[in-house]
């Protein structure tokens, strides 16, 4: 085990197995176990350590973001027990001294899971970037290396501001959707019990106070029905010229013989989006792996979806692929105009600022 910073120790499960006297040797009063224990070690309970167990594996599909807030709170209770309130958006951490107690964060090998939560705490408490926080751990524990899945999620945490995990943040919702497809790409029930993955921004009233820079509105080209805001877009970068995705290759039926190669287009013909509320009937009701979207007002075809993924005209492969067709919709700036047919999906039609 290694002392990372202040009262933060990171290591493997070995000190637990060896019954190391953590209190007397390191002044450790709290133990954060990022491992699947069938039963909490008896000696930790007997010695009255404050214990928290996060029962996860070191895998490429585990959602660690759901645990970050509560684990940061647990570590705070050890290092800053007299803190006036737990709110990283209000408390000036730099003026609060540590208690003198220490916390031991461990997993099986002390390389991935435990390091991930130590890094997230350093980001949250000391305002460090992901790169700096990981370096701070590696400096004392060179073998530290969160797996790629954990690093991706720490990157999302950093983009959230690195202080608090917001369950409704667009990046987190997009990650959960992609992860659900990764876990079971053939499932037709991905969204059946996951209403929180649907976005309702087509009903939002856009005002100067909540309008993001360069926000746009997507509406049906035929009837001007409001469909989505650009804040629901899942952005992607067109593949480079050297990428295998930069060309569309057609092969002969039942053979690998190439019959045609076509370069991908420079302009994207799809807007890839989060699942939107008006899509629920199609996505939840039919439970198909792929299908089409019709405008909720005029029924004209405006997009489609494929849970296994599909390619944009630029060549980029998107999984899952939920899209609106650029040729079937209009993209207009949201700059305080009045849209006379904005439907709030309760049956009422009203004017709305857009």
Automatic annotation (TrEMBL):
Gene3D superfamilies according to UniProt: Protein tyrosine phosphatase superfamily (3.90.190.10)
EC number per UniProt: 3.1.3.48
Protein's UniProt keywords contain Hydrolase: yes
Domain of life: Eukaryota
Protein keywords: Hydrolase, Protein phosphatase
Domain Tyrosine-protein phosphatase: start-end pairs: 1-163
A Pfam cross-reference name: DSPc
Alphabetical list of CDD domains matching this protein: DSP_fungal_YVH1 (cd14518)
Molecular functions per Gene Ontology: protein tyrosine phosphatase activity; protein tyrosine/serine/threonine phosphatase activity
Active site: 107
GO CC annotation, single: nucleus
All residue ranges annotated as the Tyrosine specific protein phosphatases domain in the record: 65-142
Family the entry assigns: Belongs to the protein-tyrosine phosphatase family. Non-receptor class dual specificity subfamily.
Protein name in the entry: protein-tyrosine-phosphatase
């Amino acid at each position: 085990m290694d002392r990372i910073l202040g009262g933060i120790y990171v290591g493997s499960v070995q000190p637990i197995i060896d019954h190391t006297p953590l209190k007397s040797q390191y002044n450790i009063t709290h133990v954060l176990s990022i491992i699947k224990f069938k039963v909490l070690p008896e000696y930790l309970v007997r010695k009255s350590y404050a214990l928290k167990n996060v029962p996860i594996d070191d895998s490429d599909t585990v959602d660690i973001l759901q645990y970050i807030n509560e684990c940061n709170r647990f570590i705070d209770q050890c290092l800053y027990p007299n803190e006036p309130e737990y709110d990283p958006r209000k408390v000036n951490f730099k003026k609060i001294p540590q208690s003198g107690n220490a916390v031991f964060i461990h997993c099986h090998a002390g390389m991935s899971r435990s390091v991930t939560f130590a890094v997230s705490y350093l980001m949250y408490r000391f305002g460090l970037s992901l790169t700096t926080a990981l370096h701070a751990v590696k400096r004392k524990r060179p073998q530290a290396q969160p797996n790629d899945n954990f690093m991706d999620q720490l990157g999302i945490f950093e983009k959230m501001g690195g202080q608090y995990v917001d369950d409704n943040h667009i990046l987190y919702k997009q990650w959960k959707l992609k992860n659900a497809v990764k876990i079971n790409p053939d499932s037709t029930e991905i969204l059946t019990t996951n209403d929180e993955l649907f976005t309702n921004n087509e009903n939002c009233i856009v005002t100067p106070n909540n309008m993001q820079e360069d926000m746009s509105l997507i509406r049906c080209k035929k009837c001007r029905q409001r469909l989505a805001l650009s804040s629901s877009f899942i952005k992607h970068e067109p593949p480079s010229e050297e990428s295998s995705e930069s060309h569309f290759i057609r092969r002969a039926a039942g053979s690998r013989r190439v019959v045609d190669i076509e370069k991908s287009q420079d302009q994207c013909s799809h807007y890839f989006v989060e699942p939107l509320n008006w899509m629920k009937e199609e996505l939840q009701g039919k439970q198909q792996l792929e299908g089409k979207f019709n405008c909720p007002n005029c029924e004209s075809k405006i997009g489609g979806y494929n849970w296994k993924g599909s390619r944009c005209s630029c060549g980029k492969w998107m999984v899952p692929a939920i899209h609106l067709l650029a040729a079937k919709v209009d993209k207009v700036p949201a700059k305080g105009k009045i849209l006379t047919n904005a439907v709030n999906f309760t049956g009422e039609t009203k004017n709305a600022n857009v």
